[in-house]
Design a protein that fits this description.
A hairpin with a 2-residue loop joins strand 9 and strand 10. The protein is built from ten helices and eleven strands. It has two domains: about 90 residues, 3-Layer(aba) Sandwich (Rossmann fold); about 120 residues, NAD(P)-binding Rossmann-like Domain (Rossmann fold). By secondary structure, the protein is α/β, with parallel strands linked by helices. The protein has a six-stranded parallel β-sheet with strand order 1-11-8-7-5-6. A three-stranded parallel β-sheet has the order 3-2-4, with helices on both faces. The longest helix is centred in the N-terminal third of the chain and has 20 residues. The structure holds nicotinamide-adenine-dinucleotide. The site of nicotinamide-adenine-dinucleotide has 24 residues, from helix 10. Keywords: Amino-acid biosynthesis, Histidine biosynthesis, Hydrolase, Methionine biosynthesis, Multifunctional enzyme, NADP, One-carbon metabolism, Oxidoreductase, Purine biosynthesis. Pathway: One-carbon metabolism; tetrahydrofolate interconversion. Belongs to the tetrahydrofolate dehydrogenase/cyclohydrolase family.
Protein backbone atom coordinates (compact mmCIF):
# COMPACT_ATOMS: atom_id res chain seq x y z
CA UNK A 1 0.00 0.00 0.00
CA UNK A 2 1.43 3.29 -1.08
CA UNK A 3 2.06 6.40 0.96
CA UNK A 4 -0.25 9.05 -0.47
CA UNK A 5 1.77 12.13 -1.39
CA UNK A 6 -0.74 14.80 -0.46
CA UNK A 7 -0.34 17.86 -2.68
CA UNK A 8 -2.68 19.85 -0.46
CA UNK A 9 -0.36 19.42 2.52
CA UNK A 10 2.62 20.55 0.44
CA UNK A 11 0.60 23.49 -0.87
CA UNK A 12 -0.41 24.48 2.65
CA UNK A 13 3.23 24.66 3.74
CA UNK A 14 4.04 26.94 0.79
CA UNK A 15 0.95 29.07 1.33
CA UNK A 16 2.08 29.82 4.87
CA UNK A 17 5.49 30.96 3.56
CA UNK A 18 3.86 33.05 0.83
CA UNK A 19 1.54 34.72 3.33
CA UNK A 20 4.48 35.62 5.57
CA UNK A 21 6.30 37.16 2.59
CA UNK A 22 3.22 39.06 1.42
CA UNK A 23 2.68 40.42 4.94
CA UNK A 24 6.31 41.56 5.15
CA UNK A 25 5.92 43.34 1.81
CA UNK A 26 2.62 44.91 2.92
CA UNK A 27 4.42 46.39 5.91
CA UNK A 28 6.57 48.22 3.35
CA UNK A 29 3.46 49.26 1.35
CA UNK A 30 4.36 46.87 -1.47
CA UNK A 31 1.72 44.75 -3.20
CA UNK A 32 2.89 41.99 -5.47
CA UNK A 33 1.12 41.74 -8.83
CA UNK A 34 0.53 38.72 -11.07
CA UNK A 35 -0.81 39.03 -14.63
CA UNK A 36 -2.31 36.02 -16.39
CA UNK A 37 -2.35 36.41 -20.14
CA UNK A 38 -5.27 34.55 -21.69
CA UNK A 39 -5.73 34.52 -25.45
CA UNK A 40 -8.91 32.94 -26.79
CA UNK A 41 -11.71 30.99 -25.19
CA UNK A 42 -10.22 27.69 -24.12
CA UNK A 43 -12.54 26.63 -21.29
CA UNK A 44 -9.88 24.77 -19.29
CA UNK A 45 -7.50 27.76 -19.45
CA UNK A 46 -10.28 30.12 -18.34
CA UNK A 47 -11.15 27.89 -15.37
CA UNK A 48 -7.47 27.56 -14.43
CA UNK A 49 -6.91 31.32 -14.74
CA UNK A 50 -9.91 32.07 -12.51
CA UNK A 51 -8.67 29.54 -9.95
CA UNK A 52 -5.24 31.18 -9.93
CA UNK A 53 -6.77 34.63 -9.40
CA UNK A 54 -8.81 33.36 -6.45
CA UNK A 55 -5.82 31.66 -4.87
CA UNK A 56 -3.48 34.62 -5.39
CA UNK A 57 -6.02 37.14 -4.12
CA UNK A 58 -6.65 35.03 -1.03
CA UNK A 59 -2.92 35.14 -0.32
CA UNK A 60 -2.73 38.93 -0.77
CA UNK A 61 -1.18 38.93 -4.25
CA UNK A 62 -3.02 41.16 -6.70
CA UNK A 63 -3.85 38.97 -9.68
CA UNK A 64 -5.48 39.98 -12.91
CA UNK A 65 -6.49 38.10 -16.07
CA UNK A 66 -5.66 40.05 -19.22
CA UNK A 67 -7.85 38.56 -21.89
CA UNK A 68 -7.45 38.92 -25.64
CA UNK A 69 -9.84 37.44 -28.23
CA UNK A 70 -8.98 34.18 -30.02
CA UNK A 71 -8.22 36.09 -33.23
CA UNK A 72 -5.81 38.56 -31.60
CA UNK A 73 -2.82 39.21 -33.84
CA UNK A 74 0.75 38.45 -32.79
CA UNK A 75 1.37 42.23 -32.69
CA UNK A 76 -1.52 42.69 -30.24
CA UNK A 77 -0.29 39.88 -28.00
CA UNK A 78 3.29 41.17 -28.04
CA UNK A 79 2.09 44.71 -27.32
CA UNK A 80 0.25 43.46 -24.23
CA UNK A 81 3.33 41.49 -23.09
CA UNK A 82 5.36 44.69 -23.53
CA UNK A 83 2.84 46.70 -21.50
CA UNK A 84 2.97 44.14 -18.67
CA UNK A 85 6.78 44.02 -18.82
CA UNK A 86 6.87 47.76 -18.21
CA UNK A 87 4.15 47.86 -15.56
CA UNK A 88 5.82 48.35 -12.17
CA UNK A 89 2.79 46.88 -10.39
CA UNK A 90 3.20 43.56 -12.20
CA UNK A 91 5.93 41.24 -10.92
CA UNK A 92 4.98 38.01 -12.67
CA UNK A 93 3.45 37.22 -16.07
CA UNK A 94 1.95 33.84 -16.94
CA UNK A 95 0.76 33.27 -20.52
CA UNK A 96 -1.86 30.50 -20.57
CA UNK A 97 -0.86 27.67 -22.89
CA UNK A 98 -1.61 26.54 -25.48
CA UNK A 99 -1.91 29.81 -27.38
CA UNK A 100 -4.21 29.78 -30.43
CA UNK A 101 -2.37 28.01 -33.30
CA UNK A 102 -1.78 31.16 -35.39
CA UNK A 103 0.44 32.59 -32.62
CA UNK A 104 4.11 31.64 -32.30
CA UNK A 105 4.64 30.45 -28.73
CA UNK A 106 8.41 30.94 -29.05
CA UNK A 107 8.08 34.62 -29.98
CA UNK A 108 5.64 35.31 -27.13
CA UNK A 109 7.98 33.53 -24.69
CA UNK A 110 10.98 35.51 -25.95
CA UNK A 111 9.09 38.78 -25.48
CA UNK A 112 8.57 38.20 -21.74
CA UNK A 113 10.81 40.15 -19.38
CA UNK A 114 13.01 37.31 -18.04
CA UNK A 115 12.62 38.45 -14.43
CA UNK A 116 8.80 38.40 -14.69
CA UNK A 117 8.66 35.08 -16.52
CA UNK A 118 6.64 32.93 -14.08
CA UNK A 119 6.93 29.65 -16.01
CA UNK A 120 10.56 30.07 -17.18
CA UNK A 121 9.43 30.12 -20.81
CA UNK A 122 11.93 32.73 -22.00
CA UNK A 123 14.91 31.06 -23.71
CA UNK A 124 17.31 32.66 -21.23
CA UNK A 125 15.46 31.08 -18.31
CA UNK A 126 15.02 27.76 -20.11
CA UNK A 127 18.78 27.74 -20.81
CA UNK A 128 19.61 28.47 -17.19
CA UNK A 129 17.36 25.61 -16.07
CA UNK A 130 19.01 23.27 -18.61
CA UNK A 131 22.49 24.18 -17.39
CA UNK A 132 21.52 23.83 -13.74
CA UNK A 133 22.38 27.50 -13.12
CA UNK A 134 18.89 28.73 -12.29
CA UNK A 135 17.22 28.88 -8.92
CA UNK A 136 14.09 29.05 -11.06
CA UNK A 137 12.14 26.60 -13.23
CA UNK A 138 8.64 26.18 -14.64
CA UNK A 139 5.95 25.82 -11.97
CA UNK A 140 4.89 22.20 -12.56
CA UNK A 141 8.39 20.69 -12.40
CA UNK A 142 9.01 22.80 -9.29
CA UNK A 143 5.79 21.40 -7.82
CA UNK A 144 7.03 17.84 -8.43
CA UNK A 145 10.35 18.63 -6.76
CA UNK A 146 8.54 20.34 -3.85
CA UNK A 147 6.48 17.18 -3.25
CA UNK A 148 9.61 15.00 -3.26
CA UNK A 149 11.32 17.44 -0.91
CA UNK A 150 8.35 17.69 1.49
CA UNK A 151 8.20 13.91 1.83
CA UNK A 152 12.01 13.69 2.05
CA UNK A 153 12.26 11.41 -0.96
CA UNK A 154 15.91 11.54 -1.93
CA UNK A 155 16.39 10.88 -5.65
CA UNK A 156 20.20 10.89 -5.58
CA UNK A 157 21.52 7.84 -7.42
CA UNK A 158 17.96 6.65 -8.15
CA UNK A 159 16.59 5.93 -11.58
CA UNK A 160 13.87 8.47 -12.44
CA UNK A 161 11.80 7.80 -15.55
CA UNK A 162 10.04 10.93 -16.80
CA UNK A 163 7.31 10.27 -19.36
CA UNK A 164 6.68 13.36 -21.49
CA UNK A 165 9.22 15.76 -22.98
CA UNK A 166 7.37 19.07 -23.23
CA UNK A 167 9.35 22.26 -22.70
CA UNK A 168 7.21 23.23 -19.73
CA UNK A 169 7.02 19.90 -17.86
CA UNK A 170 9.07 16.88 -18.97
CA UNK A 171 12.33 18.48 -20.12
CA UNK A 172 12.81 20.97 -17.27
CA UNK A 173 11.82 18.29 -14.76
CA UNK A 174 14.51 16.00 -16.17
CA UNK A 175 17.05 18.79 -15.57
CA UNK A 176 15.85 19.39 -12.01
CA UNK A 177 16.07 15.66 -11.23
CA UNK A 178 19.56 15.54 -12.74
CA UNK A 179 20.45 18.48 -10.53
CA UNK A 180 19.49 16.28 -7.56
CA UNK A 181 21.77 13.52 -8.91
CA UNK A 182 19.05 11.19 -10.18
CA UNK A 183 19.79 9.02 -13.19
CA UNK A 184 17.13 10.24 -15.58
CA UNK A 185 15.45 8.56 -18.54
CA UNK A 186 13.07 10.72 -20.57
CA UNK A 187 10.36 8.84 -22.48
CA UNK A 188 7.96 10.18 -25.08
CA UNK A 189 5.50 9.21 -27.78
CA UNK A 190 8.20 7.53 -29.88
CA UNK A 191 9.71 5.53 -27.01
CA UNK A 192 9.78 1.80 -27.74
CA UNK A 193 8.60 -0.47 -24.93
CA UNK A 194 7.73 2.15 -22.32
CA UNK A 195 6.85 -0.54 -19.78
CA UNK A 196 10.34 -2.08 -19.94
CA UNK A 197 11.76 1.31 -18.88
CA UNK A 198 9.18 2.20 -16.24
CA UNK A 199 9.63 -1.21 -14.61
CA UNK A 200 13.28 -0.26 -13.94
CA UNK A 201 12.33 3.04 -12.32
CA UNK A 202 12.68 4.00 -8.67
CA UNK A 203 10.68 7.14 -9.47
CA UNK A 204 8.12 7.39 -12.28
CA UNK A 205 6.77 10.77 -13.34
CA UNK A 206 3.91 10.62 -15.84
CA UNK A 207 3.32 13.90 -17.73
CA UNK A 208 1.52 12.90 -20.88
CA UNK A 209 -2.22 13.56 -20.81
CA UNK A 210 -3.44 10.00 -21.36
CA UNK A 211 -5.68 8.35 -18.77
CA UNK A 212 -4.49 5.00 -17.39
CA UNK A 213 -1.27 5.10 -19.43
CA UNK A 214 0.59 3.72 -16.41
CA UNK A 215 -0.85 0.44 -15.25
CA UNK A 216 0.23 -1.90 -12.44
CA UNK A 217 2.30 -4.06 -14.77
CA UNK A 218 4.54 -1.02 -15.47
CA UNK A 219 5.46 -0.26 -11.86
CA UNK A 220 8.18 -1.93 -9.82
CA UNK A 221 6.96 -2.71 -6.27
CA UNK A 222 7.84 0.17 -3.96
CA UNK A 223 8.42 2.75 -6.71
CA UNK A 224 7.47 6.39 -6.20
CA UNK A 225 4.79 7.37 -8.72
CA UNK A 226 4.16 11.04 -9.49
CA UNK A 227 1.15 11.71 -11.69
CA UNK A 228 1.25 15.07 -13.47
CA UNK A 229 -1.46 14.26 -16.02
CA UNK A 230 -4.83 15.97 -16.00
CA UNK A 231 -7.56 14.29 -18.03
CA UNK A 232 -11.33 14.38 -17.98
CA UNK A 233 -13.07 11.03 -18.10
CA UNK A 234 -16.87 10.91 -17.80
CA UNK A 235 -16.90 14.29 -16.08
CA UNK A 236 -14.23 13.30 -13.53
CA UNK A 237 -10.62 14.53 -13.41
CA UNK A 238 -8.08 11.71 -13.55
CA UNK A 239 -4.33 11.53 -14.10
CA UNK A 240 -2.15 9.37 -16.36
CA UNK A 241 -1.82 6.61 -13.76
CA UNK A 242 -4.40 3.90 -13.14
CA UNK A 243 -4.48 4.99 -9.49
CA UNK A 244 -6.58 2.21 -7.95
CA UNK A 245 -4.55 -0.52 -9.65
CA UNK A 246 -1.12 1.04 -9.00
CA UNK A 247 -1.81 2.11 -5.39
CA UNK A 248 -1.27 -1.37 -3.86
CA UNK A 249 2.07 -1.76 -5.66
CA UNK A 250 3.71 1.67 -5.43
CA UNK A 251 5.71 2.82 -2.43
CA UNK A 252 4.29 6.33 -2.72
CA UNK A 253 1.85 7.96 -5.13
CA UNK A 254 0.28 11.33 -5.85
CA UNK A 255 -3.50 11.41 -6.26
CA UNK A 256 -5.30 13.33 -9.01
CA UNK A 257 -6.82 15.70 -8.06
CA UNK A 258 -5.04 16.81 -4.91
CA UNK A 259 -1.51 15.98 -6.04
CA UNK A 260 0.82 17.88 -8.37
CA UNK A 261 -1.87 20.29 -9.58
CA UNK A 262 -2.59 21.54 -6.06
CA UNK A 263 1.08 22.48 -5.66
CA UNK A 264 1.52 23.93 -9.17
CA UNK A 265 -1.04 26.69 -8.57
CA UNK A 266 0.76 27.74 -5.39
CA UNK A 267 4.07 27.74 -7.28
CA UNK A 268 2.59 30.25 -9.75
CA UNK A 269 1.79 32.65 -6.92
CA UNK A 270 5.20 32.07 -5.36
CA UNK A 271 6.80 32.83 -8.74
CA UNK A 272 5.20 36.25 -8.81
CA UNK A 273 7.02 37.00 -5.56
CA UNK A 274 10.37 35.99 -7.02
CA UNK A 275 11.59 39.55 -7.59
CA UNK A 276 11.43 40.08 -3.82
CA UNK A 277 13.87 37.24 -3.14
CA UNK A 278 13.40 33.68 -1.97
CA UNK A 279 10.57 32.84 0.39
P1 LIG B 1 2.26 18.01 -24.00
O1 LIG B 1 1.10 17.55 -24.81
O2 LIG B 1 3.01 19.22 -24.38
O3 LIG B 1 3.32 16.82 -23.90
C1 LIG B 1 2.91 15.47 -23.77
C2 LIG B 1 4.13 14.58 -23.87
O4 LIG B 1 3.69 13.24 -23.75
C3 LIG B 1 4.89 14.70 -25.18
O5 LIG B 1 6.25 14.92 -24.89
C4 LIG B 1 4.69 13.35 -25.86
O6 LIG B 1 5.85 12.91 -26.54
C5 LIG B 1 4.39 12.45 -24.69
N1 LIG B 1 3.54 11.32 -25.06
C6 LIG B 1 2.38 11.36 -25.76
N2 LIG B 1 1.87 10.11 -25.89
C7 LIG B 1 2.73 9.28 -25.25
C8 LIG B 1 2.76 7.88 -25.04
N3 LIG B 1 1.80 7.10 -25.50
N4 LIG B 1 3.80 7.36 -24.36
C9 LIG B 1 4.78 8.14 -23.87
N5 LIG B 1 4.80 9.49 -24.03
C10 LIG B 1 3.78 10.04 -24.72
O7 LIG B 1 1.70 18.11 -22.53
P2 LIG B 1 2.27 18.87 -21.22
O8 LIG B 1 1.96 20.32 -21.30
O9 LIG B 1 3.65 18.44 -20.94
O10 LIG B 1 1.29 18.24 -20.12
C11 LIG B 1 1.27 16.84 -19.89
C12 LIG B 1 0.11 16.50 -19.00
O11 LIG B 1 0.27 17.15 -17.76
C13 LIG B 1 -1.26 16.94 -19.51
O12 LIG B 1 -2.23 16.03 -19.07
C14 LIG B 1 -1.48 18.26 -18.82
O13 LIG B 1 -2.86 18.59 -18.66
C15 LIG B 1 -0.85 17.97 -17.48
N6 LIG B 1 -0.36 19.14 -16.75
C16 LIG B 1 -0.58 19.13 -15.42
C17 LIG B 1 -0.12 20.15 -14.63
C18 LIG B 1 -0.33 20.07 -13.16
O14 LIG B 1 -0.11 21.05 -12.47
N7 LIG B 1 -0.74 18.92 -12.63
C19 LIG B 1 0.55 21.22 -15.22
C20 LIG B 1 0.82 21.19 -16.59
C21 LIG B 1 0.35 20.12 -17.35
Amino acid sequence: MALILDGKAVAAAYKAKIKAKVDALAAQNITCGLAILLVGNDAASRIYADRLVKLATGLGVQAVVRHLPADATEEEVLALVCELNEDDHIHGILPMMPLPPHLATDRVAAALAPDKDVDALHPLNAGLVATGKSRWAPCTPRAVMAILDYYQIDVSGKHAVVIGRSNVVGKPLAHLLLGQNATVTVCHSKTRDLAALTRQADVIVAAVGRPALIGPDMVRPGAVVIDVGINEVNGAVVGDVDYDAVFPIAGAITPVPGGVGAVTTVMVVEAALRSFGDL
